[in-house]
Amino acid sequence: MADEMWVNMGPQHPFNHGLWNLRVRLDGETITAAEPIVGYLHRGWEKMVENRTYPQIIPLADRLCYGSSFSWSHLYCLAAERLFDIEIPERAKYIRTACLEIQRIISHLTWLMALGTDLGSYTILIWCLREREVFIDRMVDICGARMTYNYPRIGGVRNDLPPNFARDVIRSLDLFETRLQEIEALTDSNAAFRMRTVNIGNISAEKAINLGLTGPNLRGSGVELDLRRHEPYEVYDDMDFEICTATDGDAWSRYRVRVDEMRESDKIIRQCLDKMPEGPVRVKVPRCPPKGTVGCRVEDPRGESLMYIVSDGTDKPYRLKVRSPNYINLSAAPAMLLGYKISDVPSIMGVLDMCIGETDR
Amino acid sequence: MKVIIYDKPDRSEDDVARAIESKFPGAVEVLKTAPRRIFLRVTRESFLDVCTYMKDELSFEHNSCVSPVDYIEHFTVVYHISSWANHIMAEVQVDLPRDDPTVDSITPLWGGADWHEREAFDLMGVVFKGHPDLRRIMLPEEFKFHPLRKDFQVGRRV
Amino acid sequence: MDTLYTVLYDLSDWVLGLLAYIVDWTRLDFLSGLADWLVSEPVVVVVAVLLQALIYFVTLLLLGLCFIWMERKFLGRFMDRRGTQIGVLGFFQNFADGVKVVLKEHIVPKAADRGLFELAAFGILATSFMLLGCVPLSPQFYIIDVDLALLLGLAIFSFAPFSILVGGWASNNKYTLIGGMRAAAQLIALEIPLLLVVVSVVLMTGSLSFVGIVSWQQEHLWLAFPLFIGMLTFLVAGIGESERVPFDLPEAEAELVEGWQTEYGDVRWGLIMACDYLRAYIMCGLLTMMFLGGWDGPEFIWAEVWYLAKTFIVFFFFVWIRAAMVRIRTDQILMLGWKKLLPLAVVNLLVAVILKTAEVF
């Protein structure tokens, strides 16, 4: 096999979780070129929402990413609130923050389980699924849905927390802390896991910033950047948490950042429950927003997600543009893949945390 | 390697906005400033120069988003460009005539703009001069329309 | 003591004698020579051998099913789930799956080399079953016991890379081709340490037949004690040779879909899968035979039971490792084979030589 050959890893392939295609050119087993191809799941989301009223878009925003639906519908509501220029009740802000962090844990566990499958360990898959189920149960307690919650509203949240919610969440978190240690024993102290991730898919901080990487993938390259701290929304400026970073810029660093972030989310949820004020959870919102534009960004579990809404004064948005963090992380993937082996593709793409729903929109 | 920390903003929003405006008199119009935001309107001829200046001198390291909007009589491309060091996001608007929606590509400056520009080309039909690989990304190559334009009829069979 | 063969010889002698008596009793002219022919020596031998092969085949197929069941059930428990469910303790799940696989349509890819495609599947099946014939269950229960059984077994074992490479190439698919080449490289890299360990065992016991090796251990002690390094080397190399996690690179699901088996469907795939387990059984069996005293054990129970119990314990380690590990990369396997296992095998050989020259045994 002296010639180089192009291999299509997708659109149907065990390693890509979702419909996308990674074309790689192989010299032996070494990758000499890579080209991600997306669009297989393009639903015309941005066109679709131009024909929906503002509240109708909330469940659609949920469907942007099944893995972290709350953070998307929350981002939409946050952007819409800034467009309507309304202030939501304090209690709703705390509820949203707690839910966002529960969603972050769920999303990161989903990522870790997918990474486990990619690397060939089904034990990691099942154990993470088991832990994730606990937090999904908490979300079910709040809103009755497992994946696409449709819980935030423009002007607050749909309903108040159920009784004993704080107690249940604290119990779940206590359990989660011990279980996370068990999962780490499978990964951190596993020589094979280290062999598959350490020094794989290196990317320097400068290059990562230039290529538009955000979120845990950027923090894994040693850039302490978190929009929860640098552009606080909801009640993150009252919260005491650390921005997790790792400096090596390889797959292992990105993995470490996400696992540490789960612990930080744990801390934030506890603080939210501690400080949770009493009061209403929702305010009335007019039907049509004033004319204008708003650009609003938050720290999604996958990075910086942004919504840019243009309103023409009617009850439907004139234009709604979504910046999906994963879309740009994926466009930076070739820079990480070049020069590594085809066996490294699952580890590099696995730690990127792919979600095709939000990539293709 | 050490951690790059963006702790305290170096320059204020007004400061940055003034710097851009005074550097390119006539070409840049500061629409307004808000906490952590500046809003600029830039002419399309000087757009690339403004961006180069913002990146090199004002430490705007990151291109967050490229959002083309179809205002029927003209297109507006809205660039969200972030400065991590200053904790500012600049919203740069460039108006393009409808019959010639062409603007300079910023992909050579910010690699992250690559797919945003491809998407804008694909769905809105804005052409980015100097883009290394301007192809359709979401829709198939043989698709004839730019569906996010307002004159695209939803439900039309292709 | 009566061996399986002598028992079956007597049985077929008796049955054929009965047949001959019936033929004789009919007094039909055209059958006159038949009765004499039936009781002649060659016919009795052939019938006995065929019976023996049938019994052995069925026993080992059942054994293979037990292995698959054990793996699925234990992996389930390791992962905190229930594992197979159908039948007593889920034992009949495999039968259900087997029926399903048999009923599948046989599909040969259009671009595949049809003849070689079928031949490769046949090759891996044939060699695996031939292997089974070489490994006795006890001094009585075996098919052949030649003096060079160990060498013969390993020779047949190393025929596998050839079939795999041919199968991967004949499928005319990039994944299968890469998988086939990986399999060949990996098996060759691990074969050499494996053979060096076998050499040390042969050196100690002075025999190449399993019966000889085990009877030496019955006289002296289990070789696991003096040749502990050798046993560990053999364990690791054996897992690699039977292509199991963490060395299942040839069928690395994440990047190569199913590796060289990607294009095989229906019952061929089922049999290839069963062969994987049978090969794992062979490795466990060889390890038991060479280091754990084979069927050596107190005589209140059959020797076969001792042997199988030990084999299952070794296989339990295989499953345990599979549950705990992630898959490692091709180059890392080759590195392990040539740089770690080979020196260890040489050290082990040195130990054997020293023990032998010092006449400890």
Short description:
The complex is a heterotrimer of chains A (361), B (158) and C (361). With 361 residues, chain A is an alpha+beta fold.
Break the fold down into its secondary structure elements and pairings.
The complex is a heterotrimer of chains A (361), B (158) and C (361).
Chain A: E1 5-9, E2 21-27, E3 30-37, H1 45-49, H2 57-62, H3 69-84, H4 90-119, H5 122-143, E4 152-153, E5 156-157, H6 165-187, H7 191-197, H8 205-210, H9 216-219, E6 223-224, H10 227-230, H11 251-275, E7 292-300, E8 303-311, E9 317-323, H12 325-331, H13 333-337, H14 344-352, H15 356-360
Antiparallel strand pairs in A: 1-2, 2-3, 4-5, 7-8, 8-9
Helix pairs in contact in A: 3-4, 4-5, 4-11, 4-14, 5-6, 6-11, 11-14
Chain B: E1 4-5, H1 13-23, E2 28-34, E3 37-42, H2 47-57, E4 62-70, E5 74-83, E6 88-97, E7 102-104, H3 113-124, E8 127-129
Chain C: H1 4-26, H2 34-38, H3 41-78, H4 93-102, H5 114-134, H6 149-157, H7 160-170, H8 174-205, H9 210-219, H10 228-241, H11 253-256, H12 266-291, H13 303-324, H14 330-357
Helix pairs in contact in C: 1-3, 3-12, 3-13, 5-6, 5-7, 5-12, 7-8, 8-10, 8-14, 10-12, 10-14, 12-13
Descriptive account of the structure:
The complex is a heterotrimer of chains A (361), B (158) and C (361). Chain A has 15 helices and nine strands. Chain A is of the alpha+beta class and 361 residues long. Chain A has a single domain, classed as Cytochrome-c3 Hydrogenase, chain B. Chain A has a three-stranded antiparallel beta sheet with strand order 1-2-3. In chain A, strands 7-8-9 form a three-stranded antiparallel beta sheet. In chain A, strands 4-5 form a two-stranded antiparallel sheet. The longest helix of chain A is centred in the first third of the chain and has 30 residues, at 90-119. The radius of gyration of chain A is 20 Å and the shape is globular. The model of chain A has no long low-confidence stretch (mean pLDDT 87). Chain B is α/β, with parallel strands linked by helices. Chain B has one domain (13-129): NADH:ubiquinone oxidoreductase Nqo5 subunit (Beta Polymerase, domain 2). Chain B contains three helices and eight strands. Chain B starts with a strand and ends in a 29-residue tail after the last strand. By secondary structure, chain C is mainly α. In chain C, 70% of the residues lie in helices and 0% in strands. Chain C is globular and about 75 Å long. Classes of the chains: A alpha+beta (361), B alpha/beta (158), C mainly alpha (361). Chain A binds chain C through residues 1, 5, 7, 9, 13-15, 26, 29, 116-127, 130, 186, 190, 192-193, 195-196, 341-346, 350, and chain C through 75, 78-81, 174-175, 177-178, 181, 245-246, 248-249, 252-257, 323-332. Strand 6 (223-224) of chain A pairs parallel with strand 1 (4-5) of chain B.
